[in-house]
Specification:
By secondary structure, the chain is of the alpha/beta class. It is built from 9 helices and 6 strands, in the order βαβαβαβαβααβααα. Helix 3 runs parallel beside helix 4 (101-129) and helix 4 (101-129) packs parallel to helix 6 (150-170). The longest helix has 29 residues, at 101-129.
């Protein structure tokens, strides 16, 4: 995999940072993309100081021109991009009857339109190579539903449907597309902002595996999905969720 180049969105912290570090350990050059460039620089510097290859990139994934500019920098540093991890996203908790159109639209723009834009921008490199790996980070709430999260669950359900469609459409081109729906994962911006200690404890106790998820759990599954070993796996939902959804 040392010839491969990956773009990881939302990579400045949490799951995205863990994925970036893991793929770099596997020899892949990493574009650490985030709206928070200072934190992205920290992750890229950590990878570089450990002997890996990484570059920090700034872009709002809902702005196509910003994504195109960031991808140009990544190509210039390491070459064509044939691995994409669509990890960037936002969350929110609002009772359905109080949910505004603006809140709905914002969630869809970031969580669903963002991966659409980034994938379209990266796709020409994969087509030219006749090889590609796309991993979308969805959510177990899309599988089970979640109270006060209609807009979030719907957006992530869209990610799962998009994954299946891309798998069918891009498979003949040598490109696979899979998704990972995490459960509650510690040490991420979303989990720390969203859940109090009592809620965290109840979530942990509700699953067959009685521990919290870690960003590295998601990173491990992602590393396999982008590898040569997973070349016959596409359109799949790989649940890394402690058995929350079976």
């Amino acid at each position: 995999m040392s010839a491969r180049v990956a773009l990881v969105t939302g990579a400045a912290a949490g799951i995205g940072a863990a994925i970036s570090r893991r793929l770099a350990r596997d020899g892949i050059a990493i574009g650490v993309l985030d709206v928070s460039i200072d934190d992205a620089v920290k992750v890229a510097d950590e990878i570089s100081s450990g002997g890996g290859r990484a570059i920090a990139l700034h872009a709002d994934i809902t702005a196509r021109k910003q994504v195109e500019a960031a991808l140009g920098k990544l190509r210039g540093a390491f070459g064509p991009v044939t691995i994409l991890v669509n990890n960037a996203g936002i969350t929110g908790f609002v009772p359905f009857e109080e949910l505004t159109e603006a809140q709905w639209d914002k969630m869809m723009e970031v969580n669903l339109k963002g991966p659409f834009i980034v994938t379209q921008v990266v796709l020409p490199d994969m087509k030219a190579a006749g090889w590609g790996r796309i991993v979308n980070i969805s959510s177990s709430s899309a599988q089970s539903g979640a109270v006060r999260m209609a807009h979030y669950s719907a957006s992530k359900g869209g990610v799962i449907a998009l994954t299946k469609t891309l798998a069918i459409e891009l498979g003949p081109l040598g490109i696979t597309c899979n998704n990972i729906p995490p459960r509650f994962v510690m040490n991420t911006v979303m989990s720390e902002k969203s859940f109090g200690e009592d809620v965290k404890r109840r979530i942990i106790e509700a699953g067959p595996i009685r521990r919290q998820g870690e960003p590295e759990d998601i990173a491990g599954a992602c590393a396999w999905l982008v590898s040569e070993e997973a070349g016959y796996v596409t359109g799949q939902t790989i649940g890394v969720n402690g058995g929350r959804y079976i």
